Amino acid sequence: MEFNSADISAFKNVWVFCEQRQGAMMPTTFELVSEGRKLADELGVELCGVLLGDDVDGIAKELGGYGADKVYVYNSPLLKNYTTDAYTKVICDAVKEFKPEILLFGASNIGRDLAPRCAARLHTGLCADCTHLDVDLNGYVNFLRTGSNLDVDNMNFDSKLFDVKTNLKMTRPAFGGHLMATIVCPRFRPAMATVRPGVMKKRPYDEAKAEGVELLHPAFELSEADCKTQVLEVVKAAKKLVDLIGADVIVSVGRGIAKDVEGGIALAEELAGELHGVVGASRAAVDSGWISADHQVGQTGKTVHPKIYIALGISGAIQHKAGMQDSECIIAVNKNDAAPIFEIADYGIVGDLFQVVPELIAAIRAEKTGK
To answer: The pTM is what?
Structure first.
């Protein structure tokens, strides 16, 4: 099959790899499809999902409800469980046949394994762990205007090397989250990216569009000889991890708990318990070994959008704010009245968290009992 990744004029449409596990669609897929819809509209092309599995037609229509125009469905018993070899072959063959100009993956364990294999085999670039995507230049400029301290109005975006207005602009944290880098792939297609779970907003589900989505079943070749590994058994580990992305209330701790780490975390857990929430943390708290990495919020942790976000002893470095600034209500407690966290907080309390939090807990309990 003839394929030239440098012939960029031959490529069209936006594709999303739709990850499913044991017949259930992963939530990140719906975020990606929603974001893909935006990119496809900016380019004036179709948005297509690519779904691999065994007898997965029943979940394919869901993708239309979030914006997909078409879904390429590849069914085979050899695709029931994820294996790198099988999935890489099917996706690469599909790209060579249909030539999408953009291909998105979730930055899950599977996406992080699969995407670089495909990029290498297709001889194209891959931007990993993206937190923002744009094709439209005006949209990208507005993103810079609100999300950076750059003097955007005096910047020159013209380039002699590539067309700034038509290339996918992929933004990701770099240098440990200390700055944001925007990357383009101007010479090869498809432009590929893995996208961090939780950063893209899911569109409202449209039942009519779900019913109207077109399901396609292209012919493909896959044999046991193509699979160097075989899944004999799937065993789920019962490991308790905090669900930051799905939480409505998050109480996060930062460097401010240093004088009594165990006491500070206990207060956060108690406050979170009263609000039916979970405990998060800044990178400083995680790097100090005070709390495990699955609690981390920020550019190098998880991006969250809870209804209530309470920051205890967190100064508000740009890396942390980028991961929680879209929360519906932000409450900050910090001894430093000049802490950057107060710039985005809806409510700010200047004081020692070890004195403030017990009073908050007492007030919440009094309200619950009607006193």
So the answer is: 0.75
